[in-house]
Amino acid sequence: MNDTAHAGADLLQVTEPHRELLDQVLDKWSLQVLDQLCGRPLRFNELRRAIPAIGQKSLTTTLRRLERNGMIERLVLPVRPVAVEYRVAPVGDTLNQLVDALLQWTTQNMTEVELSRKRFDAQN
C-alpha cells in the first residue's frame, strides 16, 4: 500500500517545468484568451474587442506564449490583405472544461473571498 501511495505522490510533484507551464497558462490574460478561443477561432482585433481591458502588447505577448506552449495555433489566412486567425489547439482544447470550471469556481466563491479580504484588511 505504501508503494502505491508513494507512486501517486510522485505523479503530483510540482517541479520547475510544471510551475512554469501553470504560470504561463493560468495567468490573468491567458485564461481569458483561452476562454474566448474555446468558443471559436478569432482574429487579433476580435480578441481585443472580446477582452477590452487587454492592451495590444499584452495580447501579443499572451498569444505568443500560448502558441509556444502548444495551447493555440496561429493560422495565416489566404486573403488580401493577409489576415491571421487564432484557434485553440488540440492540447489547449483539453483545458476547456478546466478553464470553465475555474471561471465557475471564481464566480461561485467571489463573495466569500471578498468578505475574507475585508476581514483580513480590517485586522491588519
Written description of the protein model:
There is one protein chain. By secondary structure, the protein is mainly alpha-helical. It has one domain (2-123): Winged helix-like DNA-binding domain superfamily/Winged helix DNA-binding domain (Arc Repressor Mutant, subunit A), CATH 1.10.10.10. Helix content is 68%, strand content 11%. It is built from seven helices and three strands. The protein has helices at residues 2-11, 16-25, 28-39, 44-50, 56-68, 90-93, 96-123, and strands spanning 42-43, 72-77, 83-88. It has a three-stranded antiparallel beta sheet with strand order 1-3-2. Residues 16-114 form the HTH hxlR-type domain. It holds the Pfam family HxlR. GO terms for molecular function: DNA binding.
Compose a concise summary of this entry.
The protein has 124 residues and is mainly alpha-helical. Helix content is 68%, strand content 11%. The N and C termini lie far apart (46 Å).
Record the SSE blueprint.
Layout: H1 2-11, H2 16-25, H3 28-39, E1 42-43, H4 44-50, H5 56-68, E2 72-77, E3 83-88, H6 90-93, H7 96-123
Antiparallel strand pairs: 1-3, 2-3
The structural class is: mainly alpha
CATH architecture: Orthogonal Bundle
| Alpha carbon gap, first and last residue | 46 Å
Low-confidence region ranges: 1-5
Query: Can you tell me the overall shape?
Result: globular
Number of domains: 1
Number of strands: 3
Q: What value does the Rg take, in angstroms?
A: 19 Å
Largest sheet: 3 strands, antiparallel
Helix and strand pattern:
HHHEHHEEHH
Name the CATH superfamily classification: Winged helix-like DNA-binding domain superfamily/Winged helix DNA-binding domain
Instruction: Give the assembly state of these chains.
Output: single chain
Task: Report strand order across the widest sheet.
Answer: 1-3-2
Task: Work out the helix count.
Answer: 7
Helical content (DSSP H or I, runs of 4+): 55-70%
CATH domain class name: Mainly Alpha
Instruction: Tell me the strand percentage band.
Output: 5-15%
Tell me the CATH topology.
Arc Repressor Mutant, subunit A
Tell me, rounded to a whole number, the average pLDDT.
89
